[in-house]
Structures are given as structure tokens and as C-alpha cells.
Amino acid sequence: MRIGTGWDLHKLKEGRKLMIGGIDIPSPLGEEAHSDGDVLIHAVIDAILGAAALGDIGTHFPPSDMQYKDISSLVLLEKTVELLTEAGYRIINLDSTVILEGPKLKPYINSIRAKLAEALSLNIDRISIKAKTKENMDATGEGKAVESIASVLIEEIDNSVWV
Length: 163
Ligand code: MG
Description:
This protein has a single domain, classed as CATH 3.30.1330.50. 29% of the residues lie in helices and 31% in strands. The protein is built from five helices and seven strands. The chain has helices at 39-51, 57-60, 73-86, 109-120, 138-141; strands at residues 2-14, 18-20, 23-25, 29-31, 89-99, 127-132, 145-156. The strands form two sheets. A five-stranded mixed β-sheet has the order 4-1-7-5-6. Strands 2-3 form a two-stranded antiparallel sheet. The structure holds magnesium ion. Magnesium ion is lined by residues 8, 10, 33, 39, 42.
């Protein structure tokens, strides 16, 4: 087994969607980004890549590449899972936290879990999403940004390699 961590932050601005784990959260502000800016999925992608020591999201999906302009981060997540599978690993579980001053994410947590469970081909009980605020401290706490952290545990698909 191997473990990986990921973190991401996006500025919030008017006229953008607030995408969290593939769910469009009703909000006057959304993530500024080259892709759809889904801060949770970006942290999850880095956690997956990190667990397998496969680099980071910028290595595989550079913002300079126009094919990733406004792309759904769910597509990037699917490509990341393909990379993980090719490397001979599968995901055991995901735990994550989204840090956002508002809106409250609680009503959407189970939808986000279901969306990520589908994208990762995992049972929903292996997907944990938590929400926090920063108590009005720093830029995220002032509602100018959204952050996410994620941890992913992976294991080798074929245990016979250890025999
Ligand atoms: Mg990002």
C-alpha cells in the first residue's frame, strides 16, 4: 500500500461556476481557472498521482495546453485513474476536506461523494468529504478563495508481484 496527499487553491470571482467534486454548487462566486477549476478534484488528482509517485497535475495536464481550457475536471480525474491503473495500482479510499467560507457545503456532500465514487469506481463508503471554514482568517477566510486537501490510499493490483 502507498499513500498520497494533494492540496489546491483557486481564487473566487464573479461569473464563474463553483465546481466542487463535479457538482455545480449555487454561488455568486466561482473558481478562476484554466479548467473548470474544481478545487476538490484537483487535490484528489494530486493525491492519486502522489501516491504512485507519478508527478503532479501540472505535469500531466499543463495549463498552457489549450486542450484543457474549461475542461471538466472529472475528465482529468478519469485520465488520472487510467494512469494509476497503467502503473498497476487501484485506490482503496479517499479522505478530503474543502475549505470554503460559503456557501455551506453540507447539503451537497452526499452528491459530491456519489459523483466521486462513480468517477473512481469505488463504493461511496470509501469516499469521505469534509467541509471547513477558516473563521474569517486569511484570503480563504475572507471568501476570496477556496482550498481543498485530499489523502488517497492505493494498493498494487497484482499482489503476486510480491511472491
Ligand atoms: Mg487547481
